[in-house]
Design brief:
metal ion binding, disordered N terminus, alpha/beta, 5-stranded antiparallel β-sheet, D-amino Acid Aminotransferase, Chain A, domain 1, Rossmann fold, nucleotide-binding, ligase, ATP-grasp_RimK-type, ATP-grasp, 4 domains
Length: about 525
Amino acid sequence: MTAVEDRLLSGNRQQTILMNILIIVDEPAEWPLDIPGVSVVAARTYLIDPFYANGISRLPDQTTSRSVKVFNLCKSYRYQSSGYYVSLLAEARGHKPLPKVGTIEDLQSQNLVRYLTEDLNAMIQRLLAPLAADDFVLGIYFGRSISSHYDSLSHQLFNLLQAPLLSARFERHRDQWSVRNVRAIAASDIPTEHHEFAVRAAMDYFTGRSQAPRKHPFRFDLAILHDPSNPEPPSNAKALEKFKRAAEELSMRVEFITRNDIGRIPQFDALFIRDTTFVNHYTYRFSRRALAERLVVIDDPDSILKCNNKVYLAELLSLRNIPIPKTLLVHRDNIARIIPELALPCVLKQPDSSFSRGVVKVEAEAELPAKVTELMSKSVLIIAQEWLFTDFDWRVGILDRRILFVARYRFPAGHWQVIKRDDQQRKLSEGPTEAIAVGDAPQEMVEIALKSANLIGDGFYGVDIKQVGNRFYVIEINDNPNVDAGNEDGVLKDALYREVMGVFLKRIEARKQGHPQPNR
């Protein structure tokens, strides 16, 4: 160890390097109480001490390679003030500041703040209606309020505005409440009677991402987005736990997050979306937010956007000479071409259909107008494809431009899709899944799948293929492919989960070294 490193390890500095959470204040005495595992640092020290610029990254302790979280609680964020430079230099150093400089700028524009909070209007009216006064100030500490009645509003404002400590002022005019202003506050602005609560809120926020120390400390933080209430998730509970164990073996801490945690995205190094993705959906917003915060993210927004639209896929695959079923892009002026070109039965597809929803089989000419009209009520373009009879669909799982797994999805008895649903789109039954060794799968089919997925990018894809005799036809390319314990992992077992987490680790390390992995 060098003399410099030995000096940094002395006294209170020894505690500092064992932590990756820094609270930055103008004067350390302004933060009311100690929090185990958190270091309180003066703004001037953080700005000028070489330790915080590069010492952390050079120390040999494994904890120092983890992302440093910087919670900026300075008195002023005005341009070129100490608070402004704390967030600015934190970003330059590869630390994760809260608030970021962009957020500081956003908070300066109250018009923008009011625009960002427009969607909270119904909640604001409901929660503030009982108040007698026409003016109300809400203190928000790490997304919490001292009155639990306002916790939901506090959490939403924190998610939107992303500053650790906020003061929101509301006013009522003609029985309607509105946001007058929201500003970031400093540690010294916390009322004395709120000190204990503010510290507890901070502790809850920090420990929400933390677990008990391990012999080998984690290097990175990975968020897995899931929906516990989703009846048909892309990974079952057992698979999620296997992903978690695989990540931990590679020194990545995992936290399962839900749709309410979008404000916490900047505190992670990577995001793995294990919820059904749609473009007009919170999963897409999570993906875009993660990419904007320079996280490694699977699925990336570009993949979600492209894979979720069958019109795009049909055009892409056709132009690249990928074999697909005979296909017609249907609009209101060419409906009459469906039967002459495709014959009956044929299949109609809503562009963003998934899990066998929004896909209908038309067997009689009399059915066609109503089916087309129903699907075109949601999109000006839909897909019509020739009917190909098979007993199963191939699925080829691809990640980082490499084959990860191959599976056969068999159909329920007497049905033509993997999932059989009733008229209300409720699942009645699902066919069995059979994992196949990559070497035992038809070589031509695997090559077609890889070529198709590579047209989208280097993310995680499931390419669905039908086999008719010795010919293979790509049906679609899915982002967010299913990985269920007992199904897709039937050949690789736990190695499948390690492969996925290994890609995350490789990409995080590349990004930390300034060599981000391209998405295509």
